[in-house]
Design a protein that fits this description.
By secondary structure, this protein is of the alpha/beta class. The chain contains 8 helices and 10 strands.
């Protein structure tokens, strides 16, 4: 279990002042690491995690770590070194090298495109129910493999393609997160529509929770601030 996460029923105001899913120009974000950190300071965040996308063959991680450590000396917000990698097969393997996985402070694994045969497919290419079932199976396989800290945007591909992911599937994933001591991510880019239902399930099972914006730009961090208010009960 990572030291950075609390169980849902232990979340307090201080815990809400963290955003553990932000992307920079090292992958597909629009902000440099320094710009991310400066924006986080403006928004009174105490801790952020930069979790740029990696693959097994990614070669940027040395420079990435160096830049994050240098920026840490210039700002008052704590910056954690992390990555987001796709769940690459139905055995639950994550597309990151062992070296990168060892060096990262926060490892996020997410369902992105669906791996079938030798190809990757977009979620919207499948019937809604099939899409949801594939996303569930990939998520469960990865959680049972257990080689990461956070399940990124659970149900997110189905929510983005069809606006729905069954609550019973969410609950199954939450239970697997609890068994594996892996944090369930409340991601403001994906889960606003189902946040009230998720809050009920997370409270019931009291699982580890990570809060993240999936920010690629300044406006995405704004979305996270809105979720902070909802999580604090200011609806």
């Amino acid at each position: 279990m990572s030291k950075y996460f609390k169980r849902f029923n232990s979340i307090d105001a201080d815990y809400l002042r963290a955003d553990r899913h932000i992307h920079s120009t090292f992958s597909d974000g629009e902000m440099t690491i320094l710009q991310v950190a400066r924006e986080a300071e403006k928004r009174n965040l105490r801790q952020i995690a930069i979790v740029d996308h990696v693959r097994e063959g990614s070669a940027y991680f040395d420079k990435y770590c160096e830049d994050i450590m240098n920026v840490c000396q210039q700002v008052g917000v704590e910056i954690l070194i992390g990555f987001e990698a796709k769940i690459k097969n139905f055995q639950g393997d994550v597309d990151a090298s062992e070296d990168v996985a060892k060096r990262a402070q926060i490892r996020v694994a997410s369902v992105h495109r669906f791996p079938l045969g030798r190809r990757l497919y977009e979620a919207g290419m499948f019937d809604k129910k099939i899409c949801q079932e594939i996303e569930l199976e990939l998520s469960i396989a990865a959680l049972r493999n257990g080689s990461f800290d956070v399940l990124g945007h659970p149900g997110g591909m189905s929510l983005r393609a069809y606006g729905e992911f069954p609550l019973e599937f969410f609950e199954e994933i939450i239970l697997e997160c609890k068994n594996a001591d892996i944090a369930f991510e409340l991601n403001s880019s994906y889960c606003f529509a189902v946040l009230k239902d998720l809050r009920r399930l997370l409270k019931k099972h009291d699982v580890l929770v990570s809060l993240g914006s999936d920010a690629h730009s300044v406006k995405d961090i704004d979305g996270f601030m809105a979720m902070q208010k909802i999580m604090a009960g200011d609806e």
